[in-house]
Description:
CATH superfamily of the largest domain in chain B: MetI-like
Largest sheet of chain B: 2 strands, antiparallel
Order of helices and strands of chain A: HEHEHEHEEHHHEHEHEHHHEH
Helix content of chain B: over 70%
Strand order of the largest sheet of chain B: 1-2
Structural class of chain A: alpha/beta
Number of domains of chain B: 3
Distance between the termini of chain B: 30 Å
CATH architecture of the largest domain in chain B: Orthogonal Bundle
Largest sheet of chain A: 9 strands, mixed
Number of domains of chain A: 2
Radius of gyration of chain A: 23 Å
Oligomer: heterodimer
Largest interface: A-B, 34 and 42 residues
Order of helices and strands of chain B: HHHHHHHHHHEEHHHHHHHHHH
Shape of chain B: flat
Number of strands of chain B: 2
Amino acid sequence: MIFRKYVAAAAVTLGVVALASTAIARDFTIASWGGGYQDSQRKNFFKPFGDSKGIKVLEDTYLGGWAQFKAMQETGNRPWDVVQIETSELIRGCEEGLFVKLDWSRIGPKDNYIGPAVTECGLGVATVSQLVGYNPKNTKAEPTSIADFFDLKKIPGKRGVRSDPKGTLEFALMADGVDVKDVYKVMSTKAGLDRAFAKLDSIKSNIQWWEAGAQAPEWLISGDVVMSTAYNGRISKANKDGHGLKMIWQNNILYVDKWVIFKGSKHVDTAYEYLQFFSDPKREAAFTNDYTYGQPVKAALKYIKPDVAAALPAGANIADALDTGRQDSVEFWLDNSDEIFERWTAWKAK
Amino acid sequence: MSEQAINPGPTGAVSDRSILKANLRRAERRRKFRAYGLIAPLFLFLLAFFLIPIGSVLYFSISNPEVVTMLPRVTAALRDWDAQSIPDEATFAALAEDLKRGYADTTLPKVSLRLNYEVSGFRSLLMRTGRKAKRMRAPFKEAIIARDKRWSELIYWRTLKANDSRFTLHYLLQALDLDLQWDGSIERAAPEQQIYLSNLRRTLWIALVVTLACIMLGYPVAYMIATAPPRLAKILILLVLLPFWTSLLVRTAAWVIVLQKSGIVNDALIGLGLVDEPLALIFNRTGVYISMVHILLPFMILPLYSVMKGIPGDHVRAAASLGATPRSAFLGVYFPQTVPGLAAGCLLVYVIALGFYITPMLIGGGSDQMLAYLIAEFATNTANWGLAGALAMLLLICIAVLYPLYQRFAGAGGMKLG
């Protein structure tokens, strides 16, 4: 008798669970970089969007790399609908059919956005610049151009450099005098690549490598390094605490992460509505009050205070920037990143 | 034992023994089943979460399905090719068909990336040609070479032909700084591309130094705890275990604050007047050793302590009473009994140290990277699971080689696995 009662109870429970799991479809889910950045996005975009549509917006964190997408391809599982990704993953996912080729008529006129923000599968989220930051308290002579980064006589001391050949090799070439238009033409030749490594070799014993964005401003503040390549947003954040760090915008490396929509997502319509919602210039301007990243919508600049705009990767600051999303940059790294990674690792270890 | 064993049979003693034997065998069998039943959950757990995942990682390191499954026609057409001159029109036609289909069903980017591992630039070659393949018409040889001149170079065709098997040694050889050529020969990688063996050597060396340092520092501490009065011993054990309550990353970040140029150590040294300039304790090998030893010391102290606790104090006293000097009493009586604990501690520290990468990454300089960093880079960042698997296999072999060594030293008092 008792045994039968237990079997019945188990059967009912299983039945309920089975019904529930088929009835509950996953809510609209967005994945972003996490931390304070995502908190800011939640305040300015995710929550208002959910409230305005009366739907639940779930969030997740994505920290970069292709492995998660490869796993999604292998398992057929799609835990997210919209995700913010970097250019190399964007191109790969777009070509491998993982992301929707955007129908811009459902988002907005392409002219409303800055050039780097409009791509086949992705809408620009924010512009981030990797540039040279320095602490005037650490050095008598102040650097005025990126060539000074490699001038140990004018400005002696350690330099912080990002531990990644992407962005760093281009930086070395531009500091050596290569025009931003020709960087990849030069790097595609053996002589050009050797030139980039040689330029970095000239200061190698003074280099301190950083992996995480937070390390660069930390070292500038603590006096560990006199100059460093760094993300502009991190420097601005340190300056909000009154540390007085300065930036050199010349030939900065521009990263424009993109929102993408997964093909086969059950919320494609909601995703398009989100992208439209995101493209509101006033909302984007409000975001820059938390994070000094440039906004993809041109009109947003109107609503940003001039002193904030002066520290944004926008307008004049990115006039001579190297856009890592442009065709020749993407093609170069897709073809050569494996080989260059090995050479870079060997060179770093010497 | 059943009743039958006690009641003697009609034939007496001999029958007794055979009945006894049968009963014994039955009891043994039952005991064995019970034993297997008890370890079955553990075995299934190991199978599901240990053997199968590791097996699949190793499988990735030799698996080569892309070219065979995604470019089937051109692979078949190249089977009879002599590899000495440009292939014929039929092969080009097969290529065009494969590229057309591969581009449409989005498998082309995957096989392009795979072939790019062999020859840099192969990716853009395949993608450029693939994008226009749908509109190509015979004669395909002209059309394809017109699209990209590189198709008239033999290296690309030879590479395609060389990858017509589902399995490859490419990743395993790459992990050993060797290059698998198109004709099957093996050459050393270009000197500026050789990173894996030197990285492995560095990893083994760093782990060794850390293990030795842990022995030097941990042995006295374990001895002190083992011979201390119970209340003091409890407090000391607590202090050894305390770091485990914080995460590895937090401890590593704390070391950055302690060791940096204007950090606690340097400020103290300068304040005491012992040095004039701050010492370089971080972003170099010194910092890596200091932080790794700190993190791994408990793994040496605890096994040593547990073995030392079981050594009666009488032994050393007896040796002294028989005329041994303190040194020979220690070396001849005490130390040999601690060897199993020492072996266990060494194994633990060494194996864990081999897998470290976060600490060297945050505290070390450019020449302090360990192998797990590269494995993580290929596993999670670029998703080159073949190479990640090959490097993981390298580490696995290094560790497997250690085990017989451990067995020899652990002896009767040590753990026996299997």
